[in-house]
Specification:
alpha/beta; TIM Barrel; 7-stranded parallel β-sheet; 45% helix; globular; binds flavin mononucleotide
Length: 273
């Protein structure tokens, strides 16, 4: 599981609740790079096994449904668990307010808006990050082969082809259409992971067949969580895996690797850039 840096609970609390789990930590690099370094060091200390740096959402997209509903958890002091537990972050808040009080949370939300989203991120950020942590670093939000090439040149350990589930930039390229060209460019030098739009085992088979080494699920498990908590998440994952197996059986794939011989991009959608 890759834990978002925008979580209700801190990264330490999540790691403490899941001993032995293969946890990764996802970072939106904050504008304050010292704060980013502090969070990454904490993630390594807490036992996370990789840092996933998201590069496609330094601000939030135009989301009419969120606007209609006035949905912004951060304004209510939610989704900042990791920030509220960070000594550098809390040191930047007014010191004359009771910690955890509504005014303190409002000040934290305002500070969070100041630091969230590093619009000036440069490629050398990844080399610097490599000096801060020994953990493998992945870049999430790659949809162009040139960016995948540059990522490898900067020493990253993997790329995640993703358009953020299509919820950031309307009319962006479909992540699946972008996948084949990135896979061709990377040519096995680092793992290529994929997300955005995976809803079923058949979807997993298609992404693996087009060359992804692994897929990630964004929303499906959240739906399971909303309906039935942890059991709902288990159910979603079981269904996806069961359908993947059936899809493989019915298409004659003995191994996941065989899917690569069985799937080809639809004409005109081979990710030509
Ligand atoms: C409610 C919600 C919150 C998300 N928050 C983050 C986030 O904090 N960091 C991130 O890298 N991606 C975030 N994403 C994007 C997902 O990580 C993922 O790229 C996307 O949802 C994949 O598409 P899918 O939902 O179609 O599977 C979020 C997605 C949703 C639905």
């Amino acid at each position: 599981m890759a834990l978002s840096n925008s979580s209700s609970l801190s990264l330490e609390e999540v790691a403490g609740a899941a001993p032995g789990a293969g946890l990764w930590f996802q970072l939106h690099p904050p504008r304050d790079e010292e704060l980013g370094a502090s969070i990454v060091r904490r993630a390594q200390k807490a036992g996370y096994r990789a840092i996933v740096v998201t590069v496609d959402s330094w601000t939030r997209g135009w989301r009419p449904a969120d606007l209609d509903l006035g949905y912004d958890p951060f304004l209510r002091g939610q989704g900042m668990g990791t920030f509220l537990a960070d000594p550098l972050f809390t040191a930047s808040l007014p010191q004359d307010m009771a910690v955890g009080s509504q005014p303190w949370l409002a000040a934290a939300g305002a500070r969070w808006r100041e630091v969230f989203g590093h619009s000036g991120l440069r490629w050398d950020y990844f080399e610097q990050l490599g000096e801060i942590t020994d953990l493998p670093i992945l870049i999430k939000g790659i949809v162009h082969p040139d960016d995948a090439e540059e990522a490898i040149a900067r020493g990253v350990s993997g790329v995640v082809v993703s358009n953020h589930g299509g919820r950031q930039l309307d009319r962006s390229v479909a992540a699946l259409d972008a996948l084949p060209a990135v896979v061709r460019q990377v040519a096995g030098r680092v793992p290529v992971l994929f997300d955005s739009g995976v809803r079923s085992g058949a979807d997993v088979a298609i992404a693996l067949g087009l060359g992804a080494d692994a897929v990630l699920l964004g929303r499906p498990w959240l739906y399971g969580l909303a309906i039935d908590g942890a059991e709902g998440v288990r159910h979603v994952l079981r269904c996806v895996l069961a359908e993947l197996e059936l899809t493989m059986v019915m298409s004659g794939a003995a191994t996941v690797g065989d899917l690569r011989h069985l799937v080809r991009p639809a004409p005109g959608r081979a990710g030509g850039h």
